[in-house]
Amino acid sequence: MAESEKKKNSLFENFLSCLIGALIGSVVFLAKVKFHLNGWKFMLFLFVVLLTLAVIFVIIIELDVKHQLEKLKAKNKTNDWKN
Hints:
Elements: H1 2-33, H2 40-82
Helix pairs in contact: 1-2
């Protein structure tokens, strides 16, 4: 059961990363073609997009780590109670 759940999570994570990559690619393409960003304006735009994405990922990872830590603490409390 746990291995099946890991495969589902891995598949979901792969799908999510592909979706995010496609989203970034389409935003960059639109910025280049639609708004005619060239040179330093395009590089600045790309930097802002990637920096925003990095901040979002750090927040998501931090929340996930806190959630995993809470689950581990709860599991340890139940194990101490049983012993």
